[in-house]
């Protein structure tokens, strides 16, 4: 099954939506760590959610959803780029029971959604926007639904599911107000569309393709299904970023590690790519003449 996203339109209800299913990208992310089932599930749901949110926005760069908690899950981050690239990771501590729910995983956590556009010519950094999302609800979908409801944006709901094979999601969103549609009619349409979506099971989300699933839900509506948008796993790590991270570490610390271990080893947590740098690499990064080669001063560490 190809990783893909479909946009759709319920024309008579004045509601738009998106459907996503991911298999290959999800397997690439699952393979980077032996996640406890509850952590794996919420990571998969977050990956589906960030895919849906990214497609609904107009941006040229990346969208990052990050949850910082205390324990047992201390950090979860997923990223979607405007060209369909996806990646994600989670950190946890201690034992996590099989039946742990969303609220059991994040204690006093906060969620931040960041949209960062690529810099335009002449800019060092692109425009950046952040939104703080309260972890209010029994699931990630509940939290995002509450955020949209409280932010006075368009009515928005998400349905998310994940298992070991794939992740999937559906998002519904009201179209902007139209003078031809009375507010009470628009609200009735919204309640009707979401009530039908509430009948979805995780199994249907994870196994049915877009056309079959949407036909089951909305066969009595004027449904328009758009062409698929391909998605894929993509890690942004590189030799250059590793060298930038070592440069940010500082020459004294880098040479100390080299003297002790004979090399500097670093792994990308997102894709498990292994990097090793030897004395020749360190001399190139920290040349004796003091002029760094192949690095960017002030570059951020790889993360």
User: Would you give the CATH topology of the largest domain?
Assistant: Hsp33 domain
The assigned structural class equals alpha+beta
CATH superfamily of the largest domain: Hsp33 domain
Class of the largest domain, according to the CATH hierarchy? Alpha Beta
H/E series, N to C? EEHHEEEHEEHEEHHHEEEHHEEH
Distance between the termini: 30 Å
Question: How much of the polypeptide forms β-strand, as a percent range?
Answer: 25-35%
* Overall body shape: elongated
Q: Compute the number of helices.
A: 10
Fraction of helical residues: 25-40%
**Average of pLDDT:** 87
Radius of gyration: 22 Å
Contiguous uncertain segments of 5+ residues: 293-303
**Tally of separate domains:** 2
How many runs of DSSP E, i.e. beta strands?
A: 14
What's the architecture of the largest domain, going by CATH? Answer: 3-Layer(bab) Sandwich
Kindly describe this structure.
The protein is of the alpha+beta class and 303 residues long. It folds into two domains: 4-233, Hsp33 domain, CATH 3.55.30; 239-285, Alpha-Beta Complex (CBS domain Like), CATH 3.90.1280. Helix content is 33%, strand content 28%. It has ten helices and 14 strands. α8 packs across α9 (251-261). The radius of gyration is 22 Å and the shape is elongated.
């Amino acid at each position: 099954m190809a990783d893909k996203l479909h946009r759709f339109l319920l024309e008579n209800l004045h509601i738009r939506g998106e459907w996503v299913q991911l298999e290959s990208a999800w397997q690439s992310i699952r393979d980077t760590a032996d996640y406890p089932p509850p952590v794996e599930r919420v990571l998969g749901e977050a990956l589906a959610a960030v895919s849906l949110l990214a497609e609904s926005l107009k941006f040229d760069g990346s969208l990052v959803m990050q949850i910082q908690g205390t324990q047992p899950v201390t950090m979860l981050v997923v990223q979607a780029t405007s060209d369909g690239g996806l990646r994600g990771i989670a950190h946890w501590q201690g034992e996590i029971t099989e039946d742990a729910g969303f609220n059991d995983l994040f204690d006093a956590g906060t969620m931040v959604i960041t949209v960062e556009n690529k810099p335009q010519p002449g800019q060092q950094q692109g425009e950046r926007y952040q939104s703080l999302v309260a972890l209010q609800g029994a699931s990630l979908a509940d939290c995002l639904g509450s955020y949209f409801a409280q932010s006075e944006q368009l009515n928005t709901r998400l349905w998310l599911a994940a298992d070991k094979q794939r992740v999937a999601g559906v998002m519904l969103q009201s179209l902007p107000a139209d003078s031809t549609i009375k507010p009470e009619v628009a609200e009735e349409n919204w309640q009707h569309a979401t009530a039908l979506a509430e009948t979805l099971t995780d199994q249907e989300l994870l196994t049915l393709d877009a056309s079959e699933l949407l036909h089951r839900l909305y066969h009595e509506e004027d449904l328009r299904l758009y062409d698929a948008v391909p998605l894929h796993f993509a890690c942004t790590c590189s030799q250059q970023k590793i060298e930038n991270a070592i440069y940010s570490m500082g020459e004294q610390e880098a040479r100390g590690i080299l003297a002790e271990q004979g090399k500097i080893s670093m792994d990308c947590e997102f894709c498990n790519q292994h990097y090793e740098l030897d004395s020749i690499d360190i001399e190139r990064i920290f040349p004796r003449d003091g002029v760094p080669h192949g690095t960017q001063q002030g570059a951020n560490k790889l993360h």
